Amino acid sequence: MEDSTVMSTELNDSEAKELKKQTKIEKEKKSLIERLEAGNFKQLQTKVAYILNIYPESRNSDITLAWKYWETYQSTIFNGEFIDKKDLFKLERQTNIVRARAKIQNEYRLFMANDEIRRFRIKAELKMVDSVRSDVAPAIKQVHVFSDESGKNQDYFVIGSVWVLKAVDLFIFSQKIDEWKSRNGLTGREIHFKKISNGDVERIKKFIDLIKANSSYLGFKYITVKNSELRRSQSEKLRKLHEILISKGVQHEVQSNRISENSIIKVALDDESSLDAIALEELSVCIKNNLEESNSKNVRLANIITTSSHLSNFVQIADLIASAIGRTLNEPDTHGAKKEVAEYLLRELSLTISDEYLDSDMSVRFDIRK
Predict the structure, then answer these.
(1) Whether residue 272 is found in the same domain as residue 128
(2) What CATH number does the domain containing 268 carry?
(3) Where is the composition biased (Polar residues) (predicted)?
């Protein structure tokens, strides 16, 4: 009886340890997905996950993975073909890249290699060398949408969004923003419209200049509505407006030929939005149905997540867009730093609050009228 009790206690301890381990893994996995969807590339693990996400060939080959990692993040050292001997030790070590890949695939079960590769990985690596050098690792056609809201308790309710039209550009622009923040004393700090003061105006204008300089692969879409004209709860109003914004936004990009056939859409909303898990699921289903019915080059929605604006430079841009438009519509006669920044942003990014549709491929406003 005593031995049985001891074995039972040991089993319970073992189960508790396993549960603790799995809880830790799930927490790390969730954090990785959030950083990835937010476009936050400060950690090596996120950078590796990004490559595994958009280059499926890299899931099967550590050679392809390292090659694409260096080509993407260290392009000033590695030109995609040759590595100079003097630069070899400047590159991220392949062992570090492979270790991150193993954790992502083996523990988090994300971006998995196919079954055959998992069984015969070493042999497969040797066969992959020639295909890597011939550059047969195409990127998944992936569009990232980041969204924020403004004015939900004012006359006009506004949702602003920034669209990154190619997944391969997500890191490039994120890196440029981080470098700009570093030069301007904003490392690790969130740019938030409501916190803009007189001393911030010129710095925020330079940030807007940076956005404009990289706007060739961006899109700005925003939707406005008078709160008094809707008879819905805040959550239902927000859900429906996001549905219209994303569905119409895809149609706009398809008509402008800026979204490729078979592209997938990934949406990140500010986690301060009032959408709960049920509303997010309803939103996802509605958008998927809308895209399927419109048959827009077989463009489809992958997922919708919420993320902290502190984690995402792109949600911060969406906040500037939504807040600048909201400020202009809701407080047209006010003056000060926020007014000056709002006017500058609308002018420089060609955003208008007077017309429903613009001639510009880059920017479009959807105005919901009674």
Answers:
(1) no
(2) 3.30.420.10
(3) 1-11
Which domain does 237 fall in, by range? 142-368
164 Cβ partners below 8 Å, 6+ apart? Answer: 39, 143, 144, 145, 146, 170, 173, 217, 218, 314
Q: Do 157 and 227 meet the contact criterion of CB atoms below 8 Å apart? A: yes
Residue with tokens 């992502």: 104
Give this prediction's pTM.
0.79
* Residue 173 pLDDT: 93
Phi, psi for 267 (deg, rounded to 5): -115, 135
Give the DSSP letter string of 264-286.
EEEEEEETTSS--HHHHHHHHHH
314-327 tens-digit pLDDT: 999 999 999 999 99
Residues contacting residue 251 through CB under 8 Å, at least 6 positions apart: 294, 296
State how far the Cα of 4 lies from the Cα of 27, in Å rounded to an integer: 34
Six-digit token string for 178: 């981080």
pLDDT tens for each residue of 176-195: 999 999 999 898 889 999 99
